[in-house]
Amino acid sequence: MHEPQDPDPGTEFDEPGVATEGDGSVGYRGVTACHAVGISYRQLDYWARTALVVPSVRDASGSGTQRLYSFRDLVVLKVVKRLLDAGVSLQNIRKAIEALRSRGVEDLAGITLISDGTTVYECRSPEEVVDLLQGGQGVFGIAIGGAFKEIQGSLSHLPAEPAASGPAEPVAASGSDPVGDELAARRARRRAG
Fold first, then answer.
1. CA distance 156 to 83
2. CA–CA distance from 44 to each of 35, 40, 68, 70 (Å)?
3. Looking at residue 75, what is its pLDDT?
4. Pairwise CA distance, residues 105 & 98, whole Å
């Protein structure tokens, strides 16, 4: 049988599940973290013991002490849970989190992670996505709307031809270059004649 231990000196409990250290920082007990994130206490304990998400306010230091998680820790826990829910293996989640930490990314709140259920990508900008499981290898995304607008802009000053079969005079796009139209007309006459 264990005797109840007094909390650390300088630790006050303002409300259930939340502890305030003497320096004013706030921590959330494991049970509170589990409810906030939607995971079991067993998962939380395993992730802390295997150093996937270690509580940054206070880690457990023997029997009777409680881990205290910061708000940012809870955000990381939620990200891990969402990746698990998306079908990413815990092993791949661990690799992704370690890749971010090794690059010195401490504040994960400003990052967008994308997953296809197998791998985890970090979205740095609309044009830059990094595969965290392949050593930070860059991949690229194509914004279809952006490509659509680029093509529209390019075609606005280029000639177009009617879709009807047979030789026909090229149809100029609005605002097109008259020199380009003249060259297209010469080519069409040569093909016809």
1. 44
2. 11, 6, 12, 14
3. 84
4. 10
Q: Give tens-digit pLDDT for 108-148.
A: 656 788 888 888 888 777 677 777 877 665 555 555 666 66
CA dist., res. 27 & res. 54, Å (int): 13
Q: How far is CA 84 from CA 12, 72, 80, 134, in A?
A: 35, 19, 6, 19
DSSP E strand boundaries for the chain: 12-15, 18-20, 26-29, 68-69, 112-115, 120-125, 128-131, 137-139
pLDDT in tens, 113-124: 888 888 888 877
Residue 39's pLDDT is 93
Residues 6+ apart with CB under 8 A from 136: 99, 103, 130
Q: What is the pTM of this model?
A: 0.56
Question: CB within 8 A of 29, min separation 6: which ones?
Answer: 17, 18, 19, 66, 67, 68, 69
Per the structure block, which two tokens stand in for 30? 């494991």
- Per this entry, what is the length of the chain? 193
- The CA–CA distances, whole Å, from 121 to 70, 86, 162 equal 25, 13, 44
